[in-house]
Amino acid sequence: MHTVILYSSSNRFGNTYQSASQLAAELNAPMIYVDEFEINDYCYQHSHADDDFRALFRRVLEFDHIVFASPVYWYAITPKLKAFFDRITDFMDDENLQPELRKLREKHFSILSTSIYDQAPEAFTAMLLRTCQYLGMAFKQQYHFKYDV
Predict the structure, then answer these.
(1) Which of 36, 51, 74, 129 has the smallest CB count inside 10 Å?
(2) Domains observed in the chain
(3) Phi and psi for 50 in degrees, rounded to 5?
(4) Cβ atoms of residues 147 and 114 within 8 Å
């Protein structure tokens, strides 16, 4: 299975990077640092078509298995990774882009989280699970790495 790790963190080379790197080595997967891309918030007028989101999304669609990696920020993923998910709506709203969106139905996804706790909170995983399943993706695995403060 051709895997990519899409990771986000305010600390580019912090705990999430360390955990994602370890998994990337095991899965022979490239890593993409979402925060280095310009991804604007979703806009009903779709006025952000010129940012990096569409190209990044199309790149991610080239893989069979997508690992979404984020530290736990107040029971949630990072704002940049959330913006990535919100912008998928661009492909829902535009009939010309919908065929590309449907490719997600052929994809698997996993979740990688990092925090000071033994496991990710249910609110964190629920958002990712429900969103990806709504998009037709099949859940593969959850990884959680605990770090001391």
Answers:
(1) 74
(2) 3-146 (3.40.50.360)
(3) -95, 5
(4) yes
Amino acid at 32: I
C-beta separation of 4 from 29 below 8 A: yes
Task: Render pLDDT for 46-75 as a digit per residue (tens, 0 to 9).
Answer: 888 899 999 999 999 999 999 999 999 999
Rounded Cα gap, residues 19 and 14, in angstroms? 9
The stretches of 28-121 forming alpha helices (DSSP H) are: 53-60, 79-87, 89-93, 98-101
Residue with tokens 């959850």: 142
Q: Could you give the CA distance from residue 114 to residue 15 in angstroms, rounded to a whole number?
A: 7
pTM for this entry: 0.96
**Residues 19-28: contacts with CB under 8 Å, at least 24 apart:** 19/69, 19/112, 19/114, 19/143, 19/145, 20/67, 20/69, 20/112, 23/67, 23/69, 23/112, 23/143, 27/3, 27/67, 28/3
